[in-house]
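Practice problem: predict the structure.
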Amino acid sequence: MQYDPIKRSLGSVFNKSLVLRKLFYRLLDLLLLRSWHIRRELRKWNAPESPVILDAGSGFGQYTYRMSQIFPLALIKAVDVKEEQVLDCNKFFLKTGLNHRVIFEKADLTKFVEPKQFDLVLSVDVMEHIEEDVKVFQNFYESMNENGMLLISTPSDQGGSDVHEHHEDETSGFIDEHVRDGYNIDEIKAKLESVGFKNVEARYQYGKPGSLSWKLSMKYPIKMLGLSKVFFIILPFYYLVIFPFAALLNWFDLIIKHKTGTGLIVKAFK
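Answer:
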């Protein structure tokens, strides 16, 4: 199953009003475990008073919006390869009045470089889609200010995106848009260091609690939505029951130091 058709269906529902779009962002913050980990790292960051931020691979704009709230004086550029999402996000941020300090642009990260512009580069669920990853890391490095931070969330090679549960008789799966199954923790550190990054830290996310939460809150609902749109009606009631358990599992995943996990949180500094 591919994510994009489901994303477009959900987007068409929540794009009907400004309130619904903000609600959608809030729901993603609560349900997506990676969002819990990213928000924690953002709040720990020793940010300048008015940071300049790049959201590299911004998608729906969820993390761009959250950073605009966490850092109220930040200037944020968000780039994505999909023009329809760039146009959609620019329209939304215009309506919110945040367009004076947030802008979305179409860009290919293998070619995007703005020398010494950004204090923070955020890349969430992007690098697993790009074959020329070292080139992108080099572009990030060149685009960052001294002491700038790079923050990445990506699947690991320990079964990221359910790769170990992908059966031969399935024609597609949760990894069908990925160019790699996931990163080895030493591999991604070595690649970042090779282009100049220092103080590279990498840790596992989506340990046992997080993996169970992901199945309950994302994998099973998306599979059911893929089978029938009737599940859109059932979905709110499903989450009403499931969410307390998923939130507790997310919290455990956040506070536990995992020996292994299906995702990685990576920080690196220039």
